[in-house]
Write a structure and sequence with these properties.
The protein is built from no helices and 16 strands. The chain is globular, with a radius of gyration of 18 Å. A hairpin with a 6-residue loop joins β10 and β11. Strands 3, 4, 5, 7, 8 and 9 form a 6-stranded antiparallel β-sheet that branches. Strands 13-12-15-16 form a 4-stranded antiparallel β-sheet, with no helix packed on it. A 3-stranded antiparallel β-sheet has the order 1-2-6, with no helix packed on it. Helix content is about 0%, strand content about 50%. By secondary structure, the chain is mainly beta.
Length: about 240
C-alpha cells in the first residue's frame, strides 16, 4: 500500500507488547515439511522476567502464497493449508506465568491440494486467546535460511506486506501486517454486486485484525484498506461455509 511520497521516520520502532522472541525454521524433505520454533523470553530492564499471562498461545500455519481456482481461473493469495499441530495451537504459559516450553517441532505431509510446494511458507504468531491480540508474528518461506521477525519498523507498507488468511475463510478471517501501522486505517467489505457488507477502523499500532465472516453468505468479497490520505488497496476474499 503506497504512502504517496509522504516521508516517514523509518527508524522509529514500536516496542513489542511482550518480551518474547520467536525463531522460526522451516524445511522440506520429499513431501514432508518440518518446522522448528524456539521461543525465548527476554529480560526486562532490571534483569528479571516479565510476568506472562496464561492466555498466551503459539499458533503455526502453513500457507500457499498463490493458488489458481481451477473452475474460474481466479488467483487467491495466502491460502491456509494447515495449522500445526491444529487450530488450537500450543499453550505457552502455565498458571504461574512461566513458559511451559521454549522449543516446538512440527511436521506435515504436503497434501495433494497444494499446487506449488515451492510457494509454501510458514507463519508463527503469539496470540492472547482471551483478547485476541497478536503480540509477535514471524513468517518464513519453506527452505529459507533467515526468518523475518516483525518488531514494528515504521516503513513503507506495500501489498506484499499484507497477509490475509485463511482465504477461503469460513467463520473468521485474519488480516496481518508485517509491521505495526503508524496511523489509523479504514476497511470496507463489498460483495460481488457492490453492496457494502461491513466497515470498520484498524487502529494505529495494530499488527493484525480479524473479521467475523460467519454470517457472510458463501461467495466472493472485496476488502478495501486505506484512509483519506492513503490510496485504498483492494483484496479478494472468498467465504465458503
Amino acid at each position: 500500500m503506497p504512502w504517496d511520497g509522504v516521508d516517514f521516520n523509518k527508524e522509529t520502532l514500536y516496542d513489542p507488547a511482550i518480551l518474547l522472541d520467536i525463531s522460526l525454521n522451516a524445511s522440506v524433505a520429499g513431501d514432508i515439511v518440518a518446522v522448528t520454533i524456539d521461543v525465548i523470553q527476554q529480560d526486562v530492564a532490571d534483569g528479571g522476567k516479565e510476568v506472562l499471562t496464561d492466555k498466551l498461545r503459539l499458533y503455526t500455519a502453513v500457507i500457499e502464497s498463490q493458488v489458481i481456482v481451477n473452475s474460474t481461473g481466479d488467483i487467491m493469495n495466502n491460502v491456509l493449508r494447515k495449522f500445526l499441530p491444529d487450530a488450537a495451537g500450543n499453550t505457552l504459559v502455565d498458571a504461574n506465568g512461566n513458559l511451559i516450553g521454549t522449543s516446538f517441532s512440527e511436521t506435515w505431509r504436503i497434501s495433494d491440494r497444494v499446487q506449488n510446494p515451492d510457494a509454501l511458507s510458514v507463519i508463527a504468531f503469539v496470540q492472547n486467546s482471551e483478547t485476541k491480540e497478536i503480540y509477535q508474528v514471524v513468517q518464513i518461506a519453506v527452505n529459507d535460511k533467515d526468518d523475518v521477525i516483525v518488531t514494528g519498523v515504521d516503513d513503507e507498507l506495500t501489498r506484499d506486506m499484507i497477509t490475509i488468511y485463511p482465504n477461503p475463510a469460513n467463520d473468521e478471517v485474519w488480516v496481518a501486517f508485517d509491521q505495526r501501522l503508524n496511523q489509523d486505517f479504514d476497511f470496507t467489505i463489498y460483495n460481488q454486486v457492490g453492496m457494502q457488507i461491513s466497515t470498520g477502523l484498524v487502529k494505529q499500532g495494530a499488527l493484525s485484525f480479524s473479521l467475523d465472516t460467519s454470517r457472510f453468505p458463501s461467495g466472493m468479497y472485496f476488502l478495501f484498506l486505506g484512509n483519506e490520505e492513503r490510496k485504498f488497496e483492494h483484496f479478494k476474499l472468498v467465504v465458503m461455509h
